[in-house]
Design goal:
The complex is a heterodimer of chains A (209) and B (226).
Chain A (H helix, E strand, L loop, with lengths): L10 E6 L6 H13 L5 E7 L4 H8 L8 E5 L4 H5 L4 H13 L5 E5 L16 E7 L12 H5 L2 E5 L4 H4 L3 H11 L5 E3 L8 H13 L3
Parallel strand pairs in A: 1-4, 1-5, 2-3, 2-4, 5-6, 6-7
Chain B lengths: L2 H12 L14 H6 L5 H31 L3 H14 L3 H20 L3 H11 L7 H11 L4 H22 L5 H20 L13 H9 L11
Classes of the chains: A alpha/beta (209), B mainly alpha (226).
Bound molecules: guanosine-5'-triphosphate and magnesium ion.
């Protein structure tokens, strides 16, 4: 256990980002990493066209399947996390009611575009996940997801050499448009960067001091 | 509330900008579109008019009006809720109706409406179901809308729920949707001109949509909850 005092209540952490950037892969990495720190986790997964992500996380063996809820978004992934997050809030509340021991709820949004942002009625804190294969000019293109998220995760660093992406430039551009707020590099295939990310989450939303 | 203020309130609650969880639901339409039973504007018009006649006019309308007059009488609301529960055949539709009812109760209670918070606790304690049409009638009454406005709002949301899902399913265009909404409005007005059934006599019969809703969970590609 961490010797610092845990904040009261549940930390609701949003995970947004374009289709296929690695949001579910990140959830699958965060679950064991948080568990290793004795943090109780539950998940809400929003899917674009199926319940596939929720099913995948349920079957992963990483978490009690009952702690994973799916929300269908009627082809409107951004609406479901911003303009009308009601169904997601209901899912979060249901998890809190059913599993009072839960301390962190990860809310994965459906894959969307660079303009998507989370309602702060739904989450306390949110990550935006892009990946190196989307093109290394992505951070420069800004977009509210990139600029305003609490942490920008640049995933699939392993693929950068194959797609000719310059990761250093990506980090530099991202830090610039984010006025220096946190940018973290990850490789969800190997787990690289995950501990750094969890340290940051622990510092920002899980513990006082 | 009077005059422009009550008109503006009606616009607020009827606007798709008002959060209600409705984007997640297609009420059986996704299944019908999937199997080609509804495709394009003409068949959509037949579908939505059929829904208005066989569901809204002889069912929703009475439920909304009854809940509207029950207002914050919680036991009376729970009895209306029971009535909806036992007269909705498809479990999927019952479940979706309760989910959307919960969504509306959540929104209105977070907006500070007291009857919403009270009914919400009743629903979470299992003492009431919280079906959407019951919840709508009570919430709109508590928000100060007269019964006539609540009925109009019910018809409007009933239609826009299908139409907006239809647009997102690629079944009709945004302009088709507006033409259909105007046509549906005439139909609803016509239907509303004849007296509503008493609560004890409400009935609904739309086997095709109900079956589509029941089979929905089996669809390979699903955008909607139902
Ligand atoms: N090489 C590499 N592949 C990755 C990494 N992270 C995820 N992937 C792969 O990228 C693909 C998409 O990953 P997902 O986790 O499904 O992405 P997502 O953002 O959840 O996708 P949607 O929910 O559909 O928007 C999968 O094939 C993953 O295995 C990574 O760090 N490196
Ligand atoms: Mg995913």
């Amino acid at each position: 256990m961490n010797e610092k005092t845990r904040l009261p209540g549940v930390a609701r952490i949003g995970i947004g980002g374009p289709v296929g950037s690695g949001k579910t892969a990140l959830v699958e990495r965060l679950i064991p990493a948080l568990k290793a720190r004795n943090i109780e986790v539950a998940v809400v997964a929003n899917d674009l066209v199926t319940r596939e992500d929720a099913e995948r996380i349920r079957r992963s063996g990483l978490i009690d399947p009952a702690r994973v809820l799916a929300v269908e978004t009627g082809a409107c992934p951004h609406t479901a996390i911003r303009e009308d997050p009601t169904m997601n809030i209901l899912a979060v509340e249901k998890l809190i009611e059913t599993f009072p021991e839960v301390e962190v709820i990860l809310v994965e949004s459906g894959g969307d575009n660079l303009a998507s942002t989370f309602s702060l009625e739904l989450v306390d804190y949110w990550l935006f996940v892009i990946d190196t294969s989307d093109g290394d000019d992505i951070p420069r293109k800004k977009g509210p997801g990139i600029v305003r998220s609490d942490i920008l995760v640049i995933n699939k660093v392993d693929l950068a050499p194959y797609v000719g992406a310059n990761v250093e430039n990506m980090v530099r551009d991202a830090s610039q448009v984010r006025s220096g707020r946190t940018v973290i590099l990850t490789n969800c295939k190997t787990g690289e960067g995950i501990e750094t990310l969890v340290d940051q989450l622990a510092h920002d939303v899980l513990f006082t001091a | 509330m009077s005059g422009i203020s009550s008109q503006l309130a009606l616009l607020q609650y009827g606007d798709s900008f008002f959060p209600s969880g409705s984007v997640s639901f297609s009420w059986g339409l996704e299944g019908l579109v999937d199997r080609g039973a509804v495709s394009g504007r003409e068949s959509f018009e037949a579908f939505i008019k059929g829904q208005l006649r066989a569901r809204w006019a002889c069912y929703e309308r009475t439920v909304v009006a009854s809940a509207h007059s029950a207002r914050d009488d919680l036991p009376a609301l729970a009895r209306i809720d029971d009535m909806v529960e036992i007269t909705t055949a498809a479990a999927e539709l019952r479940d979706a109706s309760c989910r959307m009812g919960s969504a509306m109760l959540l929104v209105f209670s977070r907006l500070g409406q007291e009857p919403a918070a009270k009914y919400r606790s009743l629903v979470s304690s299992g003492a009431a179901h919280g079906h959407v049409s019951v919840v709508q009638g009570m919430l709109w009454a508590s928000a100060g809308l007269p019964e006539r406005d609540a009925i109009a709002l019910s018809a409007h949301m009933f239609c826009t729920g299908f139409l907006s899902a239809g647009v997102r399913l690629g079944c009709i265009t945004h302009l088709d949707a507006q033409k259909l909404l105007a046509a549906a409005r005439e139909e609803a007005a016509l239907l509303a001109a004849s007296p509503a059934l008493p609560l004890g006599a409400i009935t609904t019969h739309m086997p095709e949509a109900e079956i589509a809703a029941m089979q929905h969970a089996g669809l390979e590609m699903r955008l909607f909850t139902n």
